[in-house]
Structure formats: structure tokens, C-alpha cells
Amino acid sequence: MIQSMKAKTILALSGLFVLGAFAVPVRAQAPAPGSSKYEAWLTKEVRHQLVMLPWYSVFDNLAYSVDGYTVTLQGQVVRPSLKSDAEAAIKNIEGVEKVINNIDVLPPSPNDDRIRRSVFRAIYSFGPLQKYELQAVPPIHIIVKGGHVTLEGVVDNETDKNTAYIRANGVSGVFSVTNNLRVVKS
């Protein structure tokens, strides 16, 4: 009797594993292209696809605009493969007919790499700004080209925006800092 119950339990559990192997994750259905909700959905989906790129980091800046069925990509990246990966990810979104890829690949430079690391440490190791480092993709992006630093992204308040600028500007070897950080209340 006990062996019979064990056998039934094993069969029942193995049946769950078999059923589980064929389970398909349910994904939210896209609104009908051309509908009023489609562009809002597409904008959200493009953002999701970009932040999920495996090599997207604090040293890259990806921006985009959506116009109907066309997505235009902008920004700067350190790795050339990230430019093509971003375009490929967006082309796979349901309803996207055209992707215009205006992403700039930053030229390789050991000095710029040193500045990137130094600015990262100056900003993210500073007590009041450490809270931004805890996110999967930190919201303050550090773009360096030829010794010129541009800060892109969002912060919670004007004080954090100004502090990030001052910290970046204090790094040795930095020629200039452009502060494009936006203040967005969380």
C-alpha cells in the first residue's frame, strides 16, 4: 500500500515536471499597431529592450525616439557591438518597421578609459551619490570623448545634479564637463 502511494506520488510529480517543461511564459500582448495605445506601448518596450542589453553600462548613453512604426536610436557607446545589438533588439519588437541607428561609437582611448573610471569613482563613491549606484543600470551615465566628460541621465534633485558635476570636474585630466543630468522626482 505504501509503495503504491509512493509510486503514485512519483508519477504525479514527474507529470508536473513534464507539464512544466512545456509551459510557455505569458507575455503582454502588444496593442494593435496604429491604435492610440500602440505608441505608448512601443516607447515602453523600446526602453525595456535597451536596458536589457547585456553590455549596456554606465559608460554608455542610449536614447531613442518613436515616430509611428519608426524608432530612431541616438547616444554614445564604448563597444561597437552594443550599437548593432541595440538595433537588432529594436528590430525584433512587434510592429517596428524601421530602425534609424544614429548611435556614435566612442573612439578607443586609454586616457578616456582612465578618466571614465576616475569619474565613476569620484561620483559613485561620494556618500550622497552612492544611492544611485545600487540600481541595475545606474542613472548617471559618464560619457568621455577626448578628455571631455558629459553626464547624462537622471537624479532626484538639483543638489545631486550639481554635486555630480563638481565631482566630475575635479578629476585629473578632464578638460570640460557638460552636465545634461535631468532632475526627476522619484
General description of the model:
The protein is of the alpha/beta class and 186 residues long. The chain has 2 domains: 38-105, GMP Synthetase, Chain A, domain 3; 110-183, 2-Layer Sandwich (Histidine-containing Protein, Chain: A). It is 39% helix and 23% strand. The protein is built from 5 helices and 7 strands. The protein has helices at 2-21, 38-51, 80-91, 110-124, 158-169, and strands at 61-67, 70-77, 98-101, 104-105, 140-145, 148-155, 176-183. The strands form 2 sheets. Strands 1, 2, 3 and 4 form a 4-stranded mixed sheet that branches. Helix 5 (158-169) links the parallel strand 6 (148-155) and strand 7 (176-183). The protein is globular. Mean pLDDT is 86; it is low at 4-27.
